[in-house]
Structure formats: C-alpha cells, structure tokens
Amino acid sequence: MTDSSVTLVTGANGALGSAIVERCARDGGKVVALERSKTGEVALERASASVLRLSASTTDAAALTAALNRAEAEHGAVTGAVLTAGAWRGGHRFHEPEAAADYRAVMDANLESAQIVLRALLPGLVARGRGSVVLVGSRSGVRPYDAPGDAAYAATKAALTALAQAIAAEVLADGVRVNLVLPSTIDTEANRKAMPDADHSRWVTTDSLGDVIGFLLSERARDVSGAAIPVYGRLGV
User: Distances in Å between the alpha carbon of 73 and those of 38, 69, 117, 217?
Assistant: First the structure.
C-alpha cells in the first residue's frame, strides 16, 4: 500500500473483507469498503479519513459503476481491488434435492457477483493504465476431489479461477494485473463455530492471507499476473 493507493474491497463486512479493509488502511492506503445494499439505494459513509463505506447494489453493473463513480469522486480513483464477497453452502451430494438450492446460491454469491463487480471496475483501471485486482478463489476450486458434498462450491471457484486468468491475459497489456489467492479453510469465528472439533491451527489466518493479498496489490508483484496462489496453511497440497 502507498498513500496514493485506493483499494476497493467487496464483502467488506465479512470476516476476511473487514480484515483486508483494516489492513489496507493501516498500511497507509485509502479504502472503498463495498457492502451489498439491503434497500438498493446507494449510501456513502466516511468511516475514517482513509475508509469510505459504500453500500450499493451488487447485482447490476451499470448501477454499481455509477456508485463507484460517486465514491471515486470523493475518495480518489481506485487503483486496486480485493474481491472477498462470496459464500459457502454445501454438505449434500450433488444428486440430493437440497443441493439444487445450494447450487444457485453459491453461483450467485461467488461467480455472478464477481463478474458484475469486474465489469464495473475494469473499464476505469484499463483507461488509467494501471491497477491490481485480487480475487479469492479456493483450494476446492483446484482440488474438487477433496470436496465431497461441496460440488457446487468447488465448481464456482474453479470457474472463478478460469475467469480471472482469462481476464488477466486480456488486460495485461493495459497495465492491469489480475491474480487469485486459493485459501484452504480460513480461520474465522463462523468456521470455528461450524467445525468446533477441527484442528484450527492448520487453517489459514486472515493475517496470513492478508500478507499474500497485500503483496499482490503492491508494486513488488508488478510482474505477477494470472497467478492462482495456494494459501493452504498446514492442510498440505
């Protein structure tokens, strides 16, 4: 991060998103913290000198573009983004009736939401000739055979990886980099509650994942694009 950086963070009220917002602000940059609007109305709230909270529709690229333009007018042009918004639903085999609802929910949360944000974000980055975008994939997306009961989730993360790497090739000559991190289980309060008997010491902390994301956003990663970086903790490869 630098004093001139402005990072968009989606899913900013989630466990990972809120940690990334705090980290970017602490490292000296400005942040546009994007949360899904419950009413559909755009709301801007200055949480601090460095953090601008934006509530907006994340289901309509045109509306989101207009909302980002308003945020940028107040906070500065976005130079990077971390797309943490997403969801997990699973626990059912693909052929079981319950899995059908899981499929649509995770497709919308993990893949559709990302493509809408990317369509709103990328034109500005390409026009300015610079920027770094980091998406949050999953170990399940590249190791789906390790995810029984999570077929839909694994499929969305695999598709997200392919989408990001294809886009990375498209915008590389424009000075825009696109990468992914592929965490295993992230050590959050919700995951600990859902899996109380798991060995939490083997999971990935938000601080550890933030270190990798911070590197990818920075100039130190200026020659890295199209990468899908495993962040597996102690779960192994």
Answer: 23, 6, 18, 22
